[in-house]
Amino acid sequence: MSNSSYTNLKYDKSEMYARFDNMLKEVDEEYITTLKIALLCKMMYNNISNVVVAPLKR
């Protein structure tokens, strides 16, 4: 346990670090997921923009 000289509160540094680490991992996972989605969207857009649509014959 550690003691804060300003607030006179006792806290567990190892628990705080563990919680912060878990929060950071969640943010990292969300960021990676967002990047993957953005990359897939870009790939899909590039594939669609390369498709040539032939005019319909009547």
Features:
1 helix, mainly alpha, 58 residues, 2 strands, 64% helix, two-stranded antiparallel ribbon
The succession of helices and strands, N to C, reads: EEH
Shape: rod-shaped
Average residue-wise pLDDT: 81
Biggest pleated sheet: 2 strands, antiparallel
The count of β-strands is 2
Backbone CA Rg: 25 Å
What structural class do helix, strand and pairing data support?
mainly alpha
The side-by-side strand order for the widest beta sheet comes to 1-2
Structure report:
With 58 residues, the chain is mainly α. It has a domain at 24-50. It contains one helix and two strands. Strands 1-2 form a two-stranded antiparallel sheet. The longest helix has 37 residues, at 13-49. The radius of gyration is 25 Å and the shape is rod-shaped.
Summarize the structure.
With 58 residues, the chain is mainly alpha-helical. Helices cover 64% and strands 7% of the residues.
How is the topology of this model organized?
Blueprint: E1 2-3, E2 10-11, H1 13-49
Antiparallel strand pairs: 1-2
